Protein 1
Amino acid sequence: MSNGPAFPQRKANAIVWSLSVFLIGAVAFLYLGPNLLSLGSLSPSTLPKLNAVLNGACAIVLVLAWRAILRKRVERHRRLMYLAVTLSALFLVSYILQHGTFPSVKYGGTFGWLYYPVLLTHIVLAAAIVPLVLITLSRALSARYDKHRRIARVTLPLWLYVSITGVVVYLMCAPYYSEAAPAAPPPVVEHVDSQG
């Protein structure tokens, strides 16, 4: 016996796909487009550090949530998954602010053979994970647990990969964030006339 959806599935799907297209479009525009935002004197390395912390925390929470559901601790799993979604949403806001404010940092190390494949898979799967997380969440919220479990088996490992590789990409680029900082203006020196 199945519980009926608490929210019409057609409406949920429309919201999921509209939100996914909007978020992916906003990120792509700010990543590829002009820097339209200003965050005052915030260092270009601050938001990437925050993003790495949010990604790392999300990865830990995902593992704990997976462990909880394997042990049939459904309420704990639910709370942890809400936390993972919140951490990912905060990450997305910070990421949008970062790329809307500062130019993208280019990797300048000698491990490009490792960095670029990790970056490419991270970007592709990060775009794919947006609708997957929203679909998985909507199925849980509408009490469609059979379908929730089926898609969660795909969503969880991909989401975990994206979270972990987000930290890896940050660590590989961290030395180059200071180079992206705009040059400080020269100090103002007052000229004092000694002739009285």
Protein 2
Amino acid sequence: MREFHNVPKQEKPQEHSVDGHAHEIFKIDVTNVMSNVGDSKRIKGTSGLTPIKGYELDFVSGADMEWKVEMRRVSGGVEIAGSLKGGVELECARCLHAFSFPFDITIREVAIFVSSGYEEVEGPNSEYLVVDGVLDLEPVFRDAICLSLPHKRICAPSCRGICPVCGADLNVETCECASRKIDIRLKPLLQYKENLSTNGSDGKLPGPSE
């Protein structure tokens, strides 16, 4: 558990809303708004979300997600705590239709101070950085959302998917592909099954010439 130096008690930070370009609103000039250790600031905003592929997301203008964070200046970095709530559009792996996946995430991270041209720092606190006094919240939000996405993306447990033969959406229609072409090597088994259900059988499988 991280330990920080004791600092004078601060007044409850005011909450500010931020507007503007989706990528720019996540960049906070920490040196101006939190110049001393112990200073804090609350901000909130909205953003649109566009899945790219796999577990990648792009933030765009919109209101798919509401976010609120409180940032607190600590020795050597910035502590970030807050919540992300909204939904992201995914593609169902069964029926291939889009559906909204809801999320309600609590975040708590620490970003460390570095200067431009820094060498990569290894360690548990090196994932998020404050470069030249600017904190970018975008990677913090992206990681939190992507880690919450399901590995198997299905719009509903009851989704029947699409027919692998004709491509019909089996959730809304039926198709005539039930009697699919049988591998010729399995034809004797099919004939045996038909004999059992109609005339009975002596238990012998039909020969190649039958």
Protein 3
Amino acid sequence: MLTCCICNKKIGRKEEGHMFSHKHNQLFLCEKCHSAKEKLQVNTEGKIEEIQKNRKYFEELLYIGIVHVSAKEPLQNLLKEAENAEKESIQYRFRNKNLLSTTGNSFEGYYIAEYFDVINTELVLNIGMFSELGGEICDISGKANNIVAQKISDAKEEALELLKNRATEKGGNGLLGVRFDVINLIENMLVISASGTAVRIHKKEHSSSINSI
């Protein structure tokens, strides 16, 4: 019977486990450790909280000494990569916080130094049972409409963050002409589409003149 090389949990058959990697194809992971490992391998769009949570999970298992000796080195390498991914996420979060966005074509007090590509992103939103409620019920309570509206609003915020990530990757610090579209894909499914133009902007310098008497 196989056991997880990280937490030592019994897996059962070989088909029920997950390989640690193609390079370490004799090391197997249980479902929990596999899921935690996948969440460590994120890009700049990943959530830093997820990286920290799963990195801590593996560090604790290493500390108490139940990790198989053959898995220690690849796991430590993976944690080092996760630490770098965490630092990148912090950097992107800081840059995104300072990145300006507008639905217009200019920023007051700034000039556009460089235009990059038009960028876009799409999110699929499942609005669930609320789309199946009758219009009469929605009108009476208003709750279903409010919940769906909140879901769409949250999805737009997430889409904007993704746009900011991509603008930053291209070297931009601003987004022009930000636009959102909500498309009814199939029953209970919406597509939230967001687009904008990534630009690099600089603050205008205001020269002051001193009048001599």
